[in-house]
């Protein structure tokens, strides 16, 4: 009888995501301290799990005999194939909004969630600009771009589109948080309404803008885009810390 296909969710690894083989999963978790992963019998189960906090699926338990040297936060959930046990760190205790990416809603709380946060930084206006995205589950940076000559609003816009395109390519649904109302508005209108002049210095940036606008017009946005409420929750986790 052929071995039943499994799907592997990596919440914390080199590149979080859903993988279709144990070898691919191993490549993402090998050597990663506190790696969080688990196998599922169907793609639907895996997608639901990845869009949820890892600790809803990875319940703590005592370490197996002979593994006393491992960190105490590691766990082995039931129903995991031999050699494919999941590990999980304790939920983050730093103040963050409680995120439910399945509904795209937020409430005040003390744990991170299955969502992405994006932000941009610019030295001057315009000036050297860069943007990045981090996973709220563990604060791991999952993409970074720049610096290029531009503005902060453009960086925020490109960061959101970058996150949308990445999630679309991986077939994932996850809330995207941005602290820029302007950038969120531009994404919803599928147009980067910048007043920055197109010059030889900004040509590379404008080509990126055109690609982002074309992507938005060619794809249906299904991932929730939510305003990060800085006054209530503090700086967005993707912040560059240069204020």
What does this structure look like?
With 243 residues, this protein is α+β, with helices and mostly antiparallel strands. Helices cover 26% and strands 22% of the residues. The protein contains 6 helices and 10 strands; from the N terminus they run ββαβαβββββαβααβα. The protein has a 5-stranded mixed β-sheet with strand order 8-7-6-9-10. Strands 2-1-3 form a 3-stranded antiparallel β-sheet, sandwiched between helices. A hairpin with a 4-residue loop joins strand 6 and strand 7. Helix 3 packs across helix 4 and helix 3 crosses helix 5. The protein starts with 6 loop residues before the first strand and ends in a 10-residue tail after the last helix.
Give me the secondary-structure topology:
Blueprint: E1 7-12, E2 17-19, H1 22-29, E3 36-40, H2 43-50, E4 98-100, E5 105-107, E6 115-122, E7 127-135, E8 141-150, H3 152-170, E9 175-178, H4 181-189, H5 203-218, E10 225-227, H6 230-233
Parallel strand pairs: 6-9, 9-10
Antiparallel strand pairs: 1-2, 1-3, 4-5, 6-7, 7-8
């Amino acid at each position: 009888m052929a071995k039943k296909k499994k799907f592997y969710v990596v919440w914390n690894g080199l590149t979080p995501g859903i993988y279709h083989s144990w070898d691919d999963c191993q490549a993402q978790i090998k050597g990663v301290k506190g790696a969080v992963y688990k196998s599922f019998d169907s793609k639907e189960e895996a997608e639901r799990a990845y869009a949820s906090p890892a600790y809803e699926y990875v319940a703590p338990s005592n370490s197996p005999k002979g593994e006393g040297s491992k960190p105490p936060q590691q766990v082995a959930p039931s129903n995991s194939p031999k050699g494919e046990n999941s590990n999980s760190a304790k939920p983050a205790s730093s103040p963050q909004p409680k995120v439910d990416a399945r509904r795209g809603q937020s409430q005040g709380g003390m744990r991170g969630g299955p969502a992405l946060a994006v932000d941009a930084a610019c030295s001057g206006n315009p000036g050297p600009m860069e943007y990045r995205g981090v996973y709220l589950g563990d604060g791991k940076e999952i993409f970074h771009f720049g610096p290029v000559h531009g503005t902060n609003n453009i960086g925020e816009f490109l960061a959101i589109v970058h996150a949308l395109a990445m999630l679309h390519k991986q077939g994932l649904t996850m809330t995207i948080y941005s602290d820029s109302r302007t950038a969120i508005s531009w994404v919803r209108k599928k147009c980067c309404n910048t007043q920055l002049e197109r010059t030889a210095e900004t040509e590379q940036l404008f080509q990126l803008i055109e690609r982002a606008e074309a992507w938005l017009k060619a794809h249906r946005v299904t991932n929730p885009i939510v305003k990060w409420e800085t006054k209530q929750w503090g700086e967005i986790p993707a912040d560059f810390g240069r204020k």
